[in-house]
Backbone:
């Protein structure tokens, strides 16, 4: 029992560290790289074999929760773009190909606003709540998302 508890703590700690690193790298990428270069990196084919079924769903849930938990406590401000990029690369490491969507909408009190979200087929990974009110302007990779 104690061993299982220690293993869970270690797993959670490693996942938290991975999430923090991915969010920091996403922030760095958005500052240092051109948008075109970022889209090339996002659109590259994964070298890992795709996972399916329960394993795929568990990976999506795990990454979603990790991004949310770290984002709530993260001392640096992160945007939907940072979170979507971090989740994309975390899922790619786990054998899950995703599609990053970029959308926009006009809000009465804020004017034109943009939003980025991540999906695995029809399943949202991050950014679902705001995505519903935005019109898709672009997706990466372009139109070839993995369907569940």
Residues:
């Amino acid at each position: 029992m104690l061993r299982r508890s220690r293993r869970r703590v270690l797993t959670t700690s490693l996942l938290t560290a991975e999430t923090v690193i991915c969010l920091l790298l996403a922030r760095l990428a958005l500052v240092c790289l051109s948008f075109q270069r970022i889209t090339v990196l996002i659109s590259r084919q994964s070298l890992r074999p795709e996972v399916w079924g329960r394993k795929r769903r568990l990976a999506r849930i795990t990454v979603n929760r990790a991004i949310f938990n770290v984002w709530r406590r993260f001392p640096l401000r992160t945007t939907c773009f940072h979170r979507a990029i971090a989740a994309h690369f975390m899922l790619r490491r786990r054998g899950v190909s995703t599609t990053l969507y970029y959308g926009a909408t006009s809000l009465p009190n804020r004017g034109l606003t943009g939003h980025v979200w991540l999906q695995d087929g029809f399943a949202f990974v991050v950014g679902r709540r705001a995505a519903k009110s935005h019109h898709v302007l672009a997706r990466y990779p372009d139109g070839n998302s993995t369907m569940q």
